[in-house]
Amino acid sequence: MEQPTWMIKENIVATLDAKPILASGEHPLERVLRETHTLNPGEIYEIITPFPPVPMIEKMEAAGFETYSEQKAGNFHSYFCKL
Predict the structure, then answer these.
(1) Do the Cβ atoms of 7 and 81 come closer than 8 Å?
(2) pLDDT tens digit string along 30-43?
(3) Burial level of 45, CB count in 10 A (0-12/13-18/19+)?
(4) Residue 40: CB partners within 8 Å, gap ≥ 6?
Protein backbone atom coordinates (compact mmCIF):
# COMPACT_ATOMS: atom_id res chain seq x y z
CA MET A 1 0.00 0.00 0.00
CA GLU A 2 1.33 3.41 -0.95
CA GLN A 3 1.68 5.94 1.85
CA PRO A 4 -1.28 8.38 1.76
CA THR A 5 -0.74 12.13 1.44
CA TRP A 6 -2.14 12.77 4.94
CA MET A 7 0.58 10.57 6.50
CA ILE A 8 2.93 13.28 7.77
CA LYS A 9 5.16 12.14 10.64
CA GLU A 10 5.05 15.58 12.26
CA ASN A 11 1.27 15.19 12.65
CA ILE A 12 1.56 12.11 14.90
CA VAL A 13 0.32 13.42 18.26
CA ALA A 14 0.13 10.13 20.18
CA THR A 15 1.71 6.69 19.98
CA LEU A 16 0.56 3.58 21.80
CA ASP A 17 2.82 0.53 21.96
CA ALA A 18 0.08 -2.09 22.38
CA LYS A 19 2.40 -5.08 22.62
CA PRO A 20 2.47 -5.13 26.47
CA ILE A 21 -1.32 -4.68 26.61
CA LEU A 22 -1.86 -7.56 24.19
CA ALA A 23 0.69 -9.74 26.00
CA SER A 24 -1.31 -9.31 29.23
CA GLY A 25 -4.44 -10.61 27.48
CA GLU A 26 -6.11 -7.20 27.27
CA HIS A 27 -7.38 -5.49 24.13
CA PRO A 28 -6.47 -1.86 23.39
CA LEU A 29 -9.52 -1.04 21.25
CA GLU A 30 -11.49 0.88 23.89
CA ARG A 31 -8.41 2.91 24.83
CA VAL A 32 -7.70 3.72 21.18
CA LEU A 33 -11.32 4.79 20.59
CA ARG A 34 -11.20 7.01 23.69
CA GLU A 35 -7.86 8.59 22.82
CA THR A 36 -8.64 9.20 19.13
CA HIS A 37 -11.96 10.85 20.01
CA THR A 38 -10.12 14.08 20.90
CA LEU A 39 -7.99 14.31 17.74
CA ASN A 40 -8.23 17.49 15.72
CA PRO A 41 -8.46 17.32 11.91
CA GLY A 42 -5.12 16.28 10.43
CA GLU A 43 -3.79 14.80 13.66
CA ILE A 44 -2.58 11.20 13.60
CA TYR A 45 -2.67 8.47 16.24
CA GLU A 46 -0.15 5.63 15.94
CA ILE A 47 -0.51 2.16 17.42
CA ILE A 48 2.23 -0.49 17.38
CA THR A 49 1.25 -4.16 17.39
CA PRO A 50 2.96 -7.49 16.64
CA PHE A 51 0.32 -8.31 14.00
CA PRO A 52 -1.98 -6.34 11.67
CA PRO A 53 -4.90 -5.12 13.86
CA VAL A 54 -7.50 -5.69 11.14
CA PRO A 55 -10.64 -5.52 13.34
CA MET A 56 -9.40 -2.26 14.91
CA ILE A 57 -8.62 -0.79 11.49
CA GLU A 58 -12.11 -1.68 10.28
CA LYS A 59 -13.66 -0.14 13.43
CA MET A 60 -11.65 3.07 12.97
CA GLU A 61 -12.64 3.32 9.30
CA ALA A 62 -16.29 2.85 10.29
CA ALA A 63 -15.82 5.69 12.80
CA GLY A 64 -14.71 7.98 9.96
CA PHE A 65 -10.92 7.81 10.30
CA GLU A 66 -8.45 7.40 7.48
CA THR A 67 -6.11 4.46 8.14
CA TYR A 68 -2.69 3.34 7.00
CA SER A 69 -0.46 0.48 8.18
CA GLU A 70 3.12 -0.52 7.50
CA GLN A 71 5.48 -3.15 8.82
CA LYS A 72 8.70 -1.99 10.48
CA ALA A 73 11.24 -4.23 12.23
CA GLY A 74 8.74 -7.06 12.69
CA ASN A 75 5.99 -4.87 14.16
CA PHE A 76 2.97 -3.27 12.56
CA HIS A 77 2.54 0.48 12.82
CA SER A 78 -1.02 1.56 12.16
CA TYR A 79 -2.00 5.19 11.80
CA PHE A 80 -5.45 6.72 12.29
CA CYS A 81 -6.10 10.22 11.00
CA LYS A 82 -9.12 12.40 11.55
CA LEU A 83 -9.62 14.48 8.39
Answers:
(1) yes
(2) 999 999 999 999 99
(3) buried
(4) 82
